[in-house]
Specification:
Length: about 90
C-alpha cells in the first residue's frame, strides 16, 4: 500500500488541514508535479519519466494498477482506509 500517497502524516484520526505542516508539504509537492505534467508537451511521457525516477511515485502507480488501474477509485479507497476525507484533500490541491 502506498503510504507515500498520504505520507506518514496521517493516521485514521488525522484530517488534512493547513495546520499539518508535513501534509501541507506533501500537497505542495503534488501540486508542483501536477503543474509540470500538465504543462508538458507530452504529459504521458513526462509522467512515465517521473515514475521511473521516483520510487514513491512508482509505489503509488503500482498500488493503482493493483486496484484495477483506476487512480480515482484507488485514491478514494485509500483515503477511506486512512480515515481521511478525500474531498478535503482534493480541495486543497485545487
Amino acid at each position: 500500500m502506498p503510504s507515500s500517497l498520504f505520507g506518514n502524516t496521517m493516521s485514521p484520526s488525522t484530517n488534512p488541514s493547513p495546520a499539518n505542516p508535513a501534509l501541507t508539504n506533501n500537497l505542495q509537492q503534488i501540486k508542483s508535479m501536477m503543474n509540470l505534467v500538465q504543462g508538458a508537451r507530452n504529459p504521458s511521457a513526462m509522467l512515465q519519466s517521473m515514475i521511473s525516477q521516483n520510487p514513491r511515485l512508482k509505489e503509488v502507480m503500482n498500488y493503482v494498477n493493483q486496484n484495477g488501474g483506476d487512480a480515482r477509485a484507488a485514491f478514494y479507497a485509500l483515503a477511506k482506509q486512512k480515515g481521511v476525507d478525500p474531498e478535503q484533500v482534493l480541495s486543497m490541491l485545487r
